[in-house]
Amino acid sequence: MLEISNYSKSYGGDKLAADSVSLKVESGDIYGFIGHNGAGKSTTIRAIVGVLDFTDGEILIDGHSVKTEPMECKKVTAYIPDNPDLYENLTGIQFLNFVADVFQIGDAERSERIAHYANAFEITDALGDLISSYSHGMKQKVAIISALIHEPKLLVLDEPFVGLDPKAAFTLKEIMHDLCRKGAAVFFSTHVLDVAEKLCNKVAIIKQGKIITSGTMEELTAGKSLEEAFLEVYDA
């Protein structure tokens, strides 16, 4: 579903923010991408979703090149940044309908999906309010719902649990599992290693722009906790 081959990115100078990053996310995977701040997680994620241009390497989504077939990639991808910017002069429902219009989702399908996810995140009664009145957690919930409207094959999230209350975080985890049971894939960055250990079946650890290890959770932990495994390879 997602294949990154020798992706590199520099913001100027000799230091690479991403250095020959390669990994593969298959249908059904919940893939964790972990590393310290500045390790290259967000740089890589922004390149995957087409926000950040790059020249070195290749990124394929569902067999399509992010470089040469960006629209085909965007049709099947959803992205939730760590601090989503929403149109604050719209109401929640206006914003969700706008996103549904972009993806050409019919009235019946969008109504059903919006109602389902709004109920799941317990924000149905607030959808008529202006987004400017929402808390950070409410905005995060609306961003998540907007990402799910077109039933993406690849869900890409940057620190998705920041700002979510425990019940909303649990709901998002259940949605991730449900998407993957239907054949989609989830790729997300997180600092919360306990969450990654319980949720992911595969993990990659990035340090100073380079993938230092990747594989299944069982391979990486080998009887240890993910935190212990992370510190062991990161400090080596």
Automatic annotation (TrEMBL):
<dbReference type="InterPro" id="IPR017871">
    <property type="entry name" value="ABC_transporter-like_CS"/>
</dbReference>
<dbReference type="InterPro" id="IPR051782">
    <property type="entry name" value="ABC_Transporter_VariousFunc"/>
</dbReference>
<protein>
    <submittedName>
        <fullName>ABC transporter</fullName>
    </submittedName>
</protein>
<keyword id="KW-0067">ATP-binding</keyword>
<dbReference type="Pfam" id="PF00005">
    <property type="entry name" value="ABC_tran"/>
</dbReference>
<dbReference type="InterPro" id="IPR003593">
    <property type="entry name" value="AAA+_ATPase"/>
</dbReference>
<keyword id="KW-0813">Transport</keyword>
<dbReference type="InterPro" id="IPR027417">
    <property type="entry name" value="P-loop_NTPase"/>
</dbReference>
<feature type="domain" description="ABC transporter">
    <location>
        <begin position="2"/>
        <end position="233"/>
    </location>
</feature>
<dbReference type="GO" id="GO:0016887">
    <property type="term" value="F:ATP hydrolysis activity"/>
</dbReference>
<dbReference type="InterPro" id="IPR003439">
    <property type="entry name" value="ABC_transporter-like_ATP-bd"/>
</dbReference>
<dbReference type="GO" id="GO:0005524">
    <property type="term" value="F:ATP binding"/>
</dbReference>
<keyword id="KW-0547">Nucleotide-binding</keyword>
